[in-house]
Structure formats: structure tokens, C-alpha cells
Amino acid sequence: MGSGETELYFVFMNHDPVYHRLRANRTKKGQLELDLYLSRKHEQLLSAILQPGTYRKTVSLVIIDAFGVEISEEQANLLRSAEGVRTVEKNLEVV
After folding, report:
1. What is the pLDDT confidence band of residue 94, given thresholds at 50, 70 and 90?
2. Region at 2 (left for phi over 0; alpha for psi -120 to 50; beta for the rest)
């Protein structure tokens, strides 16, 4: 696992009531809690599915509960079947 060329993929998560509750809190503290919650949630998913050192998370997207990660196509396929993942899409650059 983890062999081959890595590319940027976006992982979109399924409905999460905790995410929606935290997102509704528009205070600074609420936004910080949401950022921390998503960062931990995304890191836990990656560390449970992929081998350490074989991926690089680039960003957690707060507005849609998704994240960017540099991984191989094989790793993307593993994430597609993970519980809680709605879809995994390769980043397509428009030139």
C-alpha cells in the first residue's frame, strides 16, 4: 500500500449530526471547536485506513465536511469503501 505516484484527492464525508450542530454555532469558540473536531475526525479516518507516512492531508474543508489528501489511486479506493465516506474525487486541474 502507498506505492505509486500520489495525487491530490478530495474526500467528502457522509451526514454527521455533530458537524451540523457545531457548524450552527457562529461564535469564535464554536468555529474553533468545529475546526478541531473536523481535523481530528479526518485524521482518525486516515490513520485507521492508511499506513503512517504514506499520505499527506493538505486541508480540512469546514463548509462541507471534506478534506484534501495526497494519496495514490490504490489508497483512494480504500477510502472509498470506508465507513462514513460519501465519495472520493481526484482533483482535476483546469488549464
Report:
1. confident
2. left
Q: What residue ranges define each of the domains in the chain, with the CATH number in brackets?
A: 7-90 (3.30.70.80)
In the chain, which ranges are continuous DSSP H helix? 17-24, 28-49, 73-80
* Separation CA 15–CA 23 (nearest Å): 13
pLDDT of residue 1: 44
Determine the Cα–Cα distance for residues 56 and 21; give it in Å rounded to an integer.
28
pLDDT tens per residue, range 33-58: 999 999 999 999 999 999 999 999 99
Nearest to 42 by CA among 64, 74, 73, 72: 64
d(CA 79, CA 84) in angstroms, rounded, equals: 10
